[in-house]
Amino acid sequence: MADSRMTLADLRALIRHFHEERDWNRYHNAKDLSLSISLEANELLELFQWRNKAEVAYMEKDPAWRAAVADELADVLIYACTLGDRLDLDISQAILTKMARNQQRFPVGVAPTRVEDGPPAHNGMSRDTNSA
């Protein structure tokens, strides 16, 4: 599996090289890259639209559907890496920082509540607009 062989830095370099060869960096500004992440994420959502949990569980076994999910997920991640490059962000550090914040916000043993579970139990935590 490539996940065990490639680092985020390797992937970012591969994406950067692809864009440089085509002179696409001139089109890459933070606003348009952010919009592209959202558009590609919506294409990913379309694969799940109107399907219930049982249908999704069944589709998860379909190689063609899984390939379509992988393709759209790759588009989201490519644009995210490109935005990280454009803004000179350390994506790994951003994730580590966010995960540390989530450790504090979501302690072990405190399950998140869902709408179908009824009203949420008050746990003293306020809704963070920077949620994961």
**Largest sheet data:** none
Estimated helix fraction? 55-70%
CATH topology of the domain at 30-105: Helix Hairpins
Overall body shape: globular
Q: What keywords describe this structure?
A:
single chain; Helix Hairpins; 132 residues; 59% helix
Q: Would you mind describing this structure in some detail?
A:
Helices cover 59% and strands 0% of the residues. α1 packs across α4 and α2 packs antiparallel against α4. With 132 residues, the chain is mainly α. The chain has a domain of 76 residues: Orthogonal Bundle (Helix Hairpins). It is globular, with a radius of gyration of 18 Å. The longest helix has 24 residues. The model has no long low-confidence stretch (mean pLDDT 90).
Secondary structure elements and pairings:
Layout: H1 8-22, H2 30-46, H3 53-59, H4 63-86, H5 91-105
Short description:
The chain has 132 residues and is an all-alpha fold.
